[in-house]
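Please go through the protein record below and see whether the fold suits the sequence. Record follows.
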Amino acid sequence: MNHRSLDLFAVIAITLVAVILVLLVPADNVAGRIWTLPLVLLLPGYALTSTLFVEQTPGVVERIIFSLGLSLVIVVLGGLVLNWTPAGLRAGSWIGFLSIITIGASVVALMRRRGQGRSTARWSGIGKFGFTFRQGLLLGLAALIVCTAVAISIRGAQQQPRSGFTQLWILPVSGANAK
């Protein structure tokens, strides 16, 4: 076992403990649910951060920020995905989704750390710009997300029954009836 990989083995172990807690502890036991919070707020993002940053590991503060941010993104997108599935938004579906993401990203990070000594292939950039494959992939994914968001917002605006805008007024109860 490589001492550099102890963090990922700890992530996998904590994930498995959280899975066992969700499956064995009743849903109304708050103390048992508190012990599963790292699986929601930290572990998926940490595993994904370890997968993305193998060659240049960020500092402790950056790693914590990436872990929290990526975990929240995974939870939000996971909620959208799980809402469309027949399993729905239940504890079992959440624990399955988050544990698969966390353990899968941890295994990929372990494999990437093992092959870290190999040289990384670079794209031949135009002019001064040279991207690694990962940077180009992430840039393309970001562009796809932005284009999709713009297309969805344009389509939603075109499907509105009336043009114009909406006004939101907050009136006291007595002022709402006086028209």
Summary: DSSP finds eight helices and no strands in the chain.
